[in-house]
What does this fold into?
Amino acid sequence: MPLKGPRLLITDVMKGSIADKMGLKPGDVILSINGKEIFNEKTLNEQIKSSKGSEIKIEILRKGKKILLKSPFNADKFSINFVLIERNRLLSPKEMKEDLDTLFYA
It folds into this structure.
């Protein structure tokens, strides 16, 4: 499934966190929260804050399949780490080197 625009790829989920309890896993791509498409960290944080005290619905892409996860939500954050990915775009050699340098540093 081709993705449009940048997306957030989950790289780590804190054990015992709301994200862990909901079933989010490293490798999942966040598509939307409560019907709002997520393209960056700002939108992610806005949707998390607006969901506090109610049910949160997260649509993810896992191994090529869309999955909708729902849960009561009364937290300030998911406790996940993620990277911004852009599909359908080739990286320049300089960008590739920067990505690898970041990976090796981490």
